[in-house]
Design brief:
6-stranded parallel β-sheet; 171 residues; mainly beta; disordered C terminus
């Protein structure tokens, strides 16, 4: 964890050319800005919750970038920020991507722009939900799989309760 309750969160990068990456949970949360999480594996990635949240009213969530030669198993990803949220990019070059219970990706923003979500796999993609809503603009959601995409719910665009003058929604 590189979380910081009184300042920006630190960045976290794990890289292995031939091995797997396994972690219970990784946090780079910060008061003013969340740090970035980058995981690059020559085999598989298995992790619990990945969190790059920002707590401050104008704070920006950090980005999450995952790249693996084989499977990716996660529980959830949260890049929320009140000001703006971080982007999520997940790619498996040779196998499936599974987000286990709760299986949620959150790039939503309370008062700013939501982060974008991009997930690519040459096999199967399974996840519970994607929330990329923001009152100043929803994030774009791009899901690509060769065989099957199994998603419970996708929310992109503006929250139903927004009182702001929205700029544009996500795709």
């Amino acid at each position: 964890s590189t979380a910081n309750p009184s300042g920006p969160g630190g960045n976290l990068t794990l890289t292995t050319a031939q091995g797997s990456i396994a972690a219970a949970s990784l946090e780079t949360d910060g008061q003013f800005a969340g740090g970035n999480i980058v995981l690059d594996s020559g085999r598989q990635i298995r992790a619990g919750t990945l969190s790059t949240r920002a707590a401050d009213a104008e704070g920006a969530g950090g980005d999450v970038e995952l790249d693996a030669a084989r499977e990716i198993f996660l529980e959830s990803v949260d890049t929320t920020g009140s000001g703006s949220s971080g982007d999520v990019a997940i790619a498996s070059r040779g196998s499936g991507i599974i987000l286990e219970e709760p299986g949620e990706i959150r790039t939503a923003s309370e008062s700013g722009e939501a982060g974008n979500v991009s997930i690519r796999t040459p096999e199967t993609l399974s996840l519970g939900s994607v929330d990329a809503r923001g009152p100043r603009g929803g994030g774009n959601v791009n899901l690509e799989a060769a065989f099957l995409i199994d998603v419970g719910a996708i929310a992109a665009g503006f929250p139903a309760t927004t009182d702001n003058n929205p700029s544009e929604g996500g795709n």
